[in-house]
Amino acid sequence: DEPTNHLDLETIEWLEGRTVEQKRKVIAGITDLLVEAADARREAVQVTFRDMSRDGWGRGGLLAIDRTDGP
User: Fold this and answer.
1) Beta-bridge partners for 46
2) 8-23 tens-digit pLDDT
3) Tally of CB atoms within 10 A around 48
4) Number of helices and strands (H, E) in the chain?
């Protein structure tokens, strides 16, 4: 099968604190997965990280910085 001509845009929203090396591994893994599972063209896969601060995100009525049970 030929890869598709689609542009694949992926956004990862997570709490800040991941290293550049971790981000490299995630981008490589997501790209490999889309190439294998969805016939995406490697050069068409774009991944954007949105690193959120613990005081800029919350769950259950509390900011992440105020939670005692983890994010």
Assistant:
1) 9
2) 999 999 999 999 999 9
3) 10
4) 1, 4
